[in-house]
Amino acid sequence: MGARLIAQPNSDVKGRFTLLSTLYQIVVKPHITAMAILKIARMGHPVLRAPASPVPDPTSPEIQRLVRDMVETMDDADGAGLAAPQVHVPLRLVIFHVPADRDEPDDGSEADDEDHSVPLTVLINPVIEPLTEEQDMGWEGCLSVPGLIGAVPRFTQIRYRGVSLGGEPIDRIAEGFHARVVQHECDHLDGILYPQRMTDMSLLMFREEMKYGAPGAAEDGDEMEEEGV
């Protein structure tokens, strides 16, 4: 668990990307300039089980259009992040943000006065490197696993690299919820959903049943904030 997420070269990727672009323009009519809310793939769909392909050209009009629609879809679903495979596009691209009210430390330490929020980020062809062996448990939800939440261990500090929508390099250190959401979204690019990261399946439950309190380990004093990725 927690290996680097490295995009593997694929000699057929340009042909697949051309086909994807053609299909995308057919589904999302090219003469319609307004953003669209895309259908979200749910757990069990093949697009969520296979590794995604690298994005050949982050600055292409098709990728620009895809990102606009993904942002609209994420906002409509009130999510913190979204990966391209979740909207049936098998490319290594994720978007995420960390609101100011979600940037408290995962380790239970007191929050400082510094603003750790992260604005909307488009991360293309990402690579993740854990900077510590330390992991924390936290509640996660997923737009592709509707209605459920689970307690998932994640590395507390990571470094991630990739490129932006404009093709500029991105190289950041992330901690807390920032690190959690990046790990969660990038897992989608390798065909992994958060239940596959869980170490205690008794901590998988319906979100609405949280009104009765957290089960298992969480009842023993391990406070875990619901992340709702």
Topology:
Elements: H1 13-27, H2 61-77, E1 81-83, E2 93-98, E3 118-130, E4 135-141, E5 148-155, E6 157-163, E7 169-175, H3 176-188, E8 204-206
Antiparallel strand pairs: 1-2, 2-3, 3-6, 4-5, 5-8, 6-7
Structure description:
The protein is an alpha+beta fold and 229 residues long. The protein has a single domain, classed as Peptide Deformylase (Alpha-Beta Complex), CATH 3.90.45.10. Helices cover 20% and strands 24% of the residues. The strands form 2 sheets. It has a 5-stranded antiparallel sheet, with helices on both faces. The protein has a 3-stranded antiparallel sheet with strand order 4-5-8. Strand 6 and strand 7 form a beta hairpin. The chain is globular. The two termini are 19 Å apart. The N terminus is likely disordered.
The amount of beta strand, in percent, is 15-25%
How are strands sequenced across the largest beta sheet? 1-2-3-6-7
User: What low-confidence regions span 5 or more consecutive residues with pLDDT below 50?
Assistant: 1-32, 217-223
Give me the Rg, rounded: 18 Å
User: For the residues shown, what is the average pLDDT?
Assistant: 83
CATH topology: the name is Peptide Deformylase
Secondary structure: helix percent: 10-25%
For the record, what is the CATH homologous superfamily label?
Peptide deformylase
Number of domains: 1
- Work out the helix count: 3
* Element string (H = helix, E = strand): HHEEEEEEEHE
Specify the CATH architecture.
Answer: Alpha-Beta Complex
The gross shape turns out to be globular
